[in-house]
Amino acid sequence: MPKQDHHASRAGIAGVELMEFAVCYDNSGTVLASSIFLCATAVFIIAAALAAGRLIATRARVPPAALTVW
Question: ∠37-42-47 over CA atoms, to 5°?
Answer without folding.
Answer: 125
